[in-house]
């Protein structure tokens, strides 16, 4: 494959992608009935800006293919990012990586199929790096959410021991917590309490829905404990047991992460020791080799 043919393939791919984006923007997919009903019963949505329209137009072809996946949607939800914006950024970065990596061999005077393969490699690496960064950010946000829930249960235990009800203890404790995770919990509970057009959502239902969105199983455990406490179960004992379970799980997770990091350090330490051994034995081996030659 010659260089003109390579550029023709790249130009054809970009042209086809542009036509697909234009067609998807002109004829957007029809939303499902469930999404329309949830949108009508929920709080009013902000007006759509031109940037939002562009993100939706770029993300429309990928959305029709089922992207992003369910786990990626949970990562985006815990990071409070929009899936359409994420797909649009992915597309732009992939095209930028493809053009950058594909242009490098051409600038160096290298032809043939190498620019095309490097362009595809650049797009794949860009998408992979972006996805890895999202996954790392989601893990950090989930850890923060778990720590916030553990603190919430500890503080609720004191309020419940003092004679407060489960709903009052939850509201009082949420006012004392700070941080992005606590703000997210307050926002979701407030949205559930102010739902229009249908019956007010219970606290445990809102927590379970939040768990489905962001993938933090401790939220479902907290929702189950609150529902059981509302049904007449011993409140303080239930919350104390759940708090102990979360702390134990958190300590086990930290120990597992520590052992994993220690295992990752084994290979660098072994390579360093091997190199140091070669450095110590180099002079002795050189002297022995010189003596044998004489």
Keywords:
about 290 residues, mainly alpha, 2 domains, 11 helices, flat
The portion of residues assigned to helices is over 70%
Shape verdict = flat
Count all strands and give the number.
Answer: 0
> Which stretches are low in confidence, meaning pLDDT under 50 for 5 or more residues running?
none
The whole-number mean of residue pLDDT values reads: 81
The count of helical stretches stands at 11
Q: What is the rounded Rg?
A: 28 Å
**Proportion of β residues?**
under 5%
Order of helices and strands: HHHHHHHHHHH
Write a compact overview of the structure shown.
By secondary structure, the protein is mainly α. The protein is built from 11 helices and no strands. It folds into 2 domains: 3-141, no CATH class; 143-250.
Polypeptide structure, described:
With 294 residues, this protein is an all-alpha fold. The chain has two domains: 3-141, no CATH class; 143-250. The protein is 82% helix and 0% strand. The chain is built from eleven helices and no strands. The chain has helices at residues 3-26, 33-41, 50-64, 70-78, 83-107, 114-161, 166-176, 180-193, 203-214, 217-230, 235-293. The chain is flat and about 90 Å long. The N and C termini lie far apart (58 Å). The model has no long low-confidence stretch (mean pLDDT 81).
């Amino acid at each position: 494959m010659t260089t003109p043919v390579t550029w023709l393939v790249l130009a054809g791919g970009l042209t086809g992608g542009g036509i697909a984006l234009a067609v998807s923007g002109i004829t957007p997919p029809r939303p499902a009935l469930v999404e329309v009903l949830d949108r009508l019963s929920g709080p009013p949505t902000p007006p759509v800006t031109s940037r939002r329209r562009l993100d939706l137009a770029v993300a429309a072809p990928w959305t029709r293919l089922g992207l992003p996946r369910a786990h990626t949607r949970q990562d985006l939800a815990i990071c409070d990012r929009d899936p359409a914006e994420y797909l649009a950024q992915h597309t732009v970065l992939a095209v930028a990586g493809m053009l950058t990596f594909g242009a490098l061999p051409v600038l160096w005077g290298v032809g043939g199929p190498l620019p095309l393969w490097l362009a595809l490699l650049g797009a794949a690496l860009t998408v992979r790096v972006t996805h890895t960064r999202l996954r790392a950010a989601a893990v950090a946000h989930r850890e923060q959410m778990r720590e916030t829930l553990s603190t919430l249960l500890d503080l609720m235990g004191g309020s419940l021991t003092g004679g407060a009800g489960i709903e009052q203890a939850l509201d009082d404790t949420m006012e004392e917590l700070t941080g992005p995770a606590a703000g997210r919990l307050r926002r979701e509970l407030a949205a559930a309490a102010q739902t229009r057009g249908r019956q007010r959502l219970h606290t445990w239902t809102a927590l379970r829905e939040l768990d489905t969105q962001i993938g933090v199983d401790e939220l479902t455990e907290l929702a189950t404990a609150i529902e059981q406490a509302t049904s007449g179960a011993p409140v303080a004992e239930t919350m104390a047991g759940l708090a102990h379970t979360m702390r134990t799980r958190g300590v086990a997770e930290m120990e597992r992460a520590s052992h994993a990091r220690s295992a990752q350090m084994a290979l660098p330490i072994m390579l360093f020791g091997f190199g140091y051994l070669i450095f110590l034995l180099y002079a002795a081996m050189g002297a022995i080799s010189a003596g044998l030659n004489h």
